[in-house]
Write a structure and sequence with these properties.
This protein is an alpha/beta fold and 472 residues long. It is built from 14 helices and 14 strands. The structure holds phosphoenolpyruvate (PEP) and manganese (II) ion (MN). The site of manganese (II) ion (MN) has 5 residues, from loops.
């Protein structure tokens, strides 16, 4: 059954979700913009300077009055699935754009991104011999933390682009002015995106037999001959299932979840709701949200925010993360040690993962916490190409994933998944891969609004390589 549609089965090891008692102790203050919740006033890094307080309040009120994008029950299912990943009984594939753009939320783009993730998941399911949890960086990934508040080009200085939820990518004063109405547009674009994702993944498009045919098309390109034997193994497994008459629903539909960085609290807080089943708060902007490397301060507003919601949550950990700090994060975010609640997304960089990750994993393991360890091989491997583009080298990305597996192998702990920036399109943003994208190629199709993404082919190649790592 695990092969079948990647629908992670609930094993008896994990109890059904139980609601916890109210350690949250939230005052039941009903303000129009916070949807029955109030929040302590803590320092929040990386928030825009909204120029118009009245417009901001209007946008927040509109969000607070809008229907949820996801249901709390779905978030609980994802948490159950992640609990399995923490134990090595499932594997997480989290992927999508670095920064989604409103203009890119077209049917074709959404279809191709979902298709890429499904194709990768089919290969990884074979590699892991466990269900693969499909979690898009999608339908909400509209806000970006920036290392500099301002962007300078020639003698013009303007506010940095902070994602379509805040301002526009175009380098003009007008475009870069933060506009709170964009919060509302992000909500509606996320709703439309999620609607199509749900249609694709439950309406027959995601049938594993189609996905397998697409993968055969990929392998037919001679550049990928080295993956031929894995592809043939999968082919044999498919034929075996067909011969057995396997034709159940799990092959036809997949569970697909949505995630994004919970960065903009003016978006997330109005989209936090009390779940009528449990009386507890959930972020309803996505199934899973994470706190980024730049906003994970223990006394900051972001950590406080995710500590109060019941969703499964993630925290990025870069090379400066210290084991004591990580244990304090666990105490804040998962005091009850609920399996699947907390995911650490390590983004160390290929040269550092083997040196920095072991101390963190070891300390967390010794503490008894059951977190999901995920490898983000993108954000520690970014550099500027000789031609002036922000880029990443395919081999560095693979090397970081390899290092991640080695660390877990040596410690006897569980590598729970990967987190990648990808697109279904034929872009030229990351260097290398079997099609050998070179510095000089970057300018051809460099389309990202923020970080460089693996293109469709590079994403599939990564999946085949990770499948090999999982099998060895
Ligand atoms: C991101 O995921 O796009 C990002 C900004 O990552 P990090 O917080 O790890 O730098
Ligand atoms: Mn990024």
């Amino acid at each position: 059954a695990s092969w079948a549609g990647g629908r992670p089965t609930r094993t008896s090891t994990y109890p059904e979700p139980v609601s916890t008692t109210s350690r949250l102790d939230l005052p039941a203050v009903n303000t129009p913009s916070s949807g029955a919740l109030s929040w302590p006033d803590l320092p929040a890094a990386q928030q825009p300077n909204w120029p118009d307080a009245v417009a901001l309040e209007r946008a927040r009120a509109e969000l607070a009055a809008s229907p949820p994008l996801v249901f709390a029950g779905e978030c609980d299912v994802l948490r159950q699935n992640l609990a399995a990943a923490a134990q090595g009984e499932a594997f997480l594939l989290q992927g999508g754009d670095c920064a989604e753009m409103f203009s890119a939320a077209t049917a074709d783009n959404i279809r191709d991104r979902v298709k890429t993730i499904l194709q990768m998941a089919a290969v990884l399911t074979y590699g892991a011999s466990t269900p693969v949890i499909k979690l898009g960086r999608i339908a909400g990934q509209y806000a970006k933390p920036r290392s500099k508040d301002l962007e300078v080009r020639g003698d013009v200085t303007l506010p940095a682009y902070r994602g379509d939820m805040v301002n526009d990518f175009a380098f003009t004063e007008e475009s870069r002015r933060p506009d709170p109405q964009r919060l509302v547009r992000a909500y509606h674009t996320s709703a439309a995106t999620l609607n199509l994702v749900r249609a694709f993944t439950t309406g027959g498009f995601a049938d594993l037999r189609h996905v397998h045919e697409w993968n055969r098309g990929f392998i037919a390109n001679g550049a990928y001959a080295r993956y031929e034997s894995t592809a043939q193994d999968i082919d044999r497994a498919m034929k075996f299932m067909a011969a057995c008459g396997v034709d159940f629903d799990a092959l036809r539909t997949v569970e697909f979840f949505a995630s994004h960085e919970a960065l903009l609290l003016d978006y997330e807080k109005p989209l936090t709701r009390i779940d009528s089943r449990t009386g507890l708060p959930y972020a309803v902007s996505g199934h899973f949200v994470w706190v980024g490397e730049r906003t994970r301060q223990l006394d900051g507003a972001h950590v406080d925010f995710v500590s109060r919601i019941q969703n499964p949550i993630g925290v990025k950990l870069g090379p400066t993360a210290d084991p004591d700090e990580v244990l304090r994060l666990i105490d804040r975010l998962d005091p009850e040690r609920r399996p699947g609640r907390l995911t650490f997304i390590a983004r160390m960089g290929a040269p550092r993962v083997r040196e920095k990750l072991p101390a963190l994993v070891e300390r967390v393991d010794r503490s008894g916490a059951k977190v999901v360890w995920v490898c983000d091989p993108m954000h520690g491997n970014t550099f500027e190409s000789t031609t002036g583009y922000k880029t990443r080298e395919f081999d560095d990305i693979i090397d970081e994933v390899r290092g991640f597996f080695e660390v877990h192998e040596a410690l006897g702990t569980v590598p729970g998944g990967i987190h990648v920036e990808l697109t279904g399109n034929d872009v030229t943003e990351c260097l290398g891969g079997s099609e050998k994208i070179l510095d000089a190629d970057l300018e051809k199709h460099y389309e990202t609004a923020c970080d460089p993404r693996l293109n469709h082919q590079q994403s599939l190649e990564l999946a085949f390589l990770v499948a090999e790592m999982l099998r060895s």
